[in-house]
Write a structure and sequence with these properties.
Layout lengths: L8 E4 L6 E10 L4 H8 L9 E6 L5 E10 L9 E9 L1 H14 L4 E2 L4 H8 L5 H12 L3 H12 L1 H23 L7 H7 L2 H27 L1 E6 L6 H9 L17 E7 L2 E7 L9 H16 L2 E7 L7 H14 L4 H7 E6 L21 H12 L13 H21 L6 H19 L5 H8 L7
Parallel strand pairs: 1-6, 7-9, 7-10, 10-11
Antiparallel strand pairs: 1-2, 2-5, 3-4, 4-5, 8-9
Amino acid sequence: MLARHQDPIAAIATAPGRGAVGIVRVSARQPLDGLIEAVCGQALKPRHAHYLPLRAADGSVIDQGLALHFPAPHSYTGEQVLELQAHGGPVILQLLLARCLQALPGCRLAEPGEFTQRAFLNGKLDLAQAEAVADLIDASTEAAARSAARALEGALSKEVNGLRDALIHLRMFVEATLDFPEEEDVEFVQQADVQGQLTGLRSRIEQILVRTRQGALLREGLQVVLAGQPNVGKSSLLNALAGAELAIVTPIPGTTRDRVSEQIQIEGVPLHITDTAGLRDAADEVERIGVARSWESIAKADVVLFLHDLTRLQEADYQREDERIRAQLAAHDDAAHLEARLLHVFNKADAAEVPEGAMALSARTGAGLDALRQELLARAGWQAMPEGLFIARERHVQALSRTQAHVGGALEQVSVPRPALDLVAEELRLAHEALGEITGQFSADDLLGEIFSRFCIGK
């Protein structure tokens, strides 16, 4: 995709289907005067909306609509951009798109995310801001949308650029010091308080990393699987959490035979809740497939909510299924992570005595649901931040974690009596590169291709 970014491109920029208004967008490096004359029949004043007939090749009118011309570099992509706004019927928009492709030599259909990719390549957005465009479109909660807007405005980029400037300052000093005789290295390092600067930088990275993890949680959400034996109330709990009758609830064991998923939000954090078939030795093939899918979901879950029926605690099968779930999770987790992922919850608190210290609720009455919601947020690592959050991605968290590790490595080197400044310089270089991956300062083409391919066409 990167090799073709000089071609003129065109696409329908609004969602598929029928609507009141639809947009066809064109972006090109070369002037668009010929295309504008062919489609609009007149010159367009930059950044002004013109209401006029949009014409086919034979001069007939395709539709009456608005045309806007954004000359480079003052456009979304930084190139020459033409936007045609017409009635939002699929046929009308396809006719306009075909007309643009015909009238502009070399023009081709845009690939997913290519308009935003060009904005990035032309310096209109950095990579974190470009990703925020997609995150704003895909936001599933109001909190996620607001956080994506902050990231698009550059909140994350500003934090990263501040770290970058501090790293550049340290790199320049350390690498310049390498030119001096070895016996003077220690004196230079002490005079500049390199150790103190690195300690402060590591603390700043940790603070930003905490906020970035919260931003990633707003984007990614938490995968929660409801597990347990048949008829313990998993489907009732899903319905109670969702506030809707999503899953069928009957007294018949094995009613749920396949996964039922729903997204809810708690304090703006999206939670993807999956109800699964009851864990037992199934009697028929359909239920066996459902139970197998339950185990697949359990293996992938961020939190396994293992539901117990307080009226049936004496049944031996509970202990067996608990051991099976722990064995399944232990294949992927250490002991601490396993305990963080496995949450025991006791249902039907309105009908039986609750064991001391147990998390209990009643899916029927709703008692205890608020406590469960708060526990799920705690398991997710959610913290109410005093300042506005910015949306983030797991790759941002990983890049900051590597940056922190390399800064820590440099700090270890300067903490010894005679530091090896060449190793310090290398750790700082690696930290700088890891940080640059967030904004795209250091990014491989395959990473860019993966990121922009996930955008919608026309954006």
